[in-house]
Structure of Germination protein:
Amino acid sequence: MFAENRKISIRQLQMLLLLDCFGTAVLFLPAELAEISGRGCFFAALLGGLGVSAASLLLTAVGRRMPNGTVVDWCRSVCGNGIGTILLLGLAGKLLLDGMLELRIFSEIICRFMLPATPVWVLSLVLLLVAGALAAQGTECRGRTAEILFFLVAIPLLLVLLAVAASTRYARVLPLALPSPSGIGAGLAEMSIVFRGLVFLYFIYPDLKKPVGFAVWKGCLLITAVVTVIVLLCLANYGEGMLAAKLLPTLQMLERVSFTGVFLTRQDLLLLWFWMASAVLFLSGVVFFGSLLGTQLCRQAEKKRKLWLWVVLAALFALSFLPESLMEAQRLRLAVSPWLNLAYLVGLPVLLLLLGRKGEKKDV
């Protein structure tokens, strides 16, 4: 049975957002931006993050107008059953795509760096089972887990980043260069992938103890700042040419600093532990909200969510093996995810706000 723990605080929401958004995309991000924007890659990350942070205000505005419903209620009341159902099916597809790509990419990374003798399907299955168990406990359990993991993981990671920053020479960053228009577009596209956790805001408002205010926007600004610093440090350590050629520059950058002691001897494993926490939390969100979406879309009782949980888990496991390799999965994400993010992080909120206002005027 599902636990009925459905209320979380604003602080828990912010920590969930931080961990949900720090997925595997950040591992590839510095190299991909350096390839397009050169020395202006960290400016591209900054501008892209600010742009996506502004888009979060749209989702917050929709939630303020309809605080007691989810996206299913919003779409059906504003767009009608037909168009609303089509939009919701697209959202379900986005959730499954984001989840299966995160699952496949992270499983491949773990297999490559930590457990080379373990089959990818075993790692994927273990991650999904842990995520499913967490999802079955409700939103409050996810919020409390995020609170615990944030302090256990973020503080050591911050210490490593500070050590990297202190030992880095910044000559490779100079002279400063601004990204081209295509570089800014790439920054927006890449950062929209980083902020994939924003899609959960479509479901979360009924579960909040207090109105969200600007908490989501502030969390997005913090994520933007941290990601920009990571890209800047990667650029300063490698230079634009070498950085563009690397596969996972964020991991390799953190290996450059040596700590005494056991816990921080392998900074790359520390970072992978951070991303493991992020991956499990994000996948649990996909499973939880995917099962909720399926139940509400089919107008079924709450008790049917257990069945939908297993459906989502099975779909994620099967779909994760469609890409043949790590790089093919990443190429698929770069080709498809930015367009879906544009549609559902910008297009759908604008549509709901405009049609909702039009409906209010008719009622008057």
Observations:
- The chain has a mean pLDDT of 85.
